[in-house]
Amino acid sequence: MADWTRRNGNGLGKGQSEEILDRENQQMTENLSRKMNRLKNVAFDMQTEAEDQNRYLDGMGSDFESSQGLLSGSMNRINHMIGANKSNRKIMCYIVLFLVIIFFVVYFLVTRSSGS
């Protein structure tokens, strides 16, 4: 901001200094208005992003709940199959052995392909 008392002493009249002050105030008001608009846009963008993230998290929560239901149902069926009788235990051992072999084959293939 300029020192208007010096300018007044240099021959500017009271009316001219008031005009200069008015123009300067108008310019500062416009600058402040632009900055406020930018802040409002940023706040609106932040609100929109927060709402999107909340919707995403809500969807994730429901996905986890449905996965939990699916896994608990599977575990109940496996427990029922294990407890049914001796022949089911033998089948269960074969299934576990098969899964372990598949795991090692996939592990071998992944390490072999990433090593190349």
TrEMBL record:
User: Where do the T-SNARE coiled-coil homology domain residues begin and end?
Assistant: 19-81
Region of interest (Disordered), ranges: 1-22
Keyword vocabulary terms for this entry: Golgi apparatus, Membrane, Protein transport, Transmembrane, Transmembrane helix, Transport
Q: What GO CC annotations are associated with the protein?
A: Golgi membrane
**What is the protein's membrane topology class?**
Single-pass type IV membrane protein
Under SMART domains, the record lists: t_SNARE
Location in the cell: Endomembrane system; Golgi apparatus membrane
Transmembrane intervals: 91-110
What SUPFAM superfamilies would the database entry show?
SNARE fusion complex
Please give a single GO biological process term from the UniProt record.
protein transport
Give the protein's recorded name. Answer: BET1-like protein
Where does this protein come from, organism-wise? Lingula anatina (Brachiopod)
Gene symbol of the encoding locus: LOC106165635
